[in-house]
Amino acid sequence: MVGLVLISHSARLAEEAVALAVGIAGDDAPIRPAGGTDEGGLGTSLTKLENAVAEVDQGDGVVVLMDLGSAVLTARAFVEDRPDVVLADAPFIEGAISALVTAGTGATLEAVVAAAEEARTIGKLC
Amino acid sequence: MDTAFFLRWIATVTERVRAERDHLTDLDRAIGDADHGSNLDRGFTAVEEALVTTSPATPADVLTTTGTTLIRKVGGASGPLYGTLFRTLGRSIGDVAEVSPEALADAFADALGAIMKLGSAAEGDKTMIDALAPAVPALKVSFDAAAQAARDGARATTEMRARKGRASYLGERSVGHQDPGATSMAIVIDSLRAA
Question: What's the pTM?
Answer without folding.
Answer: 0.91
